[in-house]
Design a protein that fits this description.
The chain has 5 helices and 6 strands. Strands 1, 2, 3, 4, 5 and 6 form a 6-stranded mixed β-sheet that branches.
């Protein structure tokens, strides 16, 4: 699954003012929300925070994939945030997180959600891909890299 199936240019950001994982999740929720639906950002944020309290969604190597199921969504959507400086996120490798792909998925898409998480983890398992994300000069370069990336081959 290419990243462009989840992301849009408007949901890719560089975050420079986060002090911790909670700040990052709040920023992600704002990107994931539909501006035409007042209050959706707070619903998404609450769900992302609730999921994070179960266990950290940091997968190591400075990457986190916070995710939540939202009853009012009809389709999955993602937001990518490059965080500078990296923030603590409770990763098992203790690495602070600077690459975040947040997901909001329809509540009833349980199996598809698990499959999508596995696919996304494959992207971030690639050290070269992570390096290119970190080295992108600006927001436009970051957007191009993410939206033009092809799905990893198994």
């Amino acid at each position: 699954m290419p990243m462009r199936d989840l992301l849009s240019a408007a949901r890719v950001a560089i975050v420079r003012d986060a002090s911790d994982g909670a700040d990052v999740i709040d920023a992600a929720a704002q990107l994931l929300a539909d501006p035409a639906q007042p209050g959706q950002a707070s619903v998404i944020a609450a769900s992302l925070h609730a999921r994070e309290t179960l266990a950290s969604t940091a997968i190591g190597h400075g990457v986190a994939i916070p995710h939540a199921r939202i009853a009012t969504l009809d389709a999955s959507r993602g937001a990518f945030l490059r965080v500078s400086p990296p923030v603590p996120f409770g990763a098992s490798d203790n690495a602070p997180v600077d690459l975040v792909l947040a997901l909001a998925v329809p509540e009833h898409h349980v199996q598809q959600h698990l499959h999508r998480l596995a696919e996304l983890a494959e992207y971030f398992a690639d050290a070269d891909f992570r390096a290119r994300l970190r080295e992108a000069d600006d927001l436009e370069a970051l957007r191009m890299l993410l939206l033009e990336s092809e799905a990893p081959t198994p």
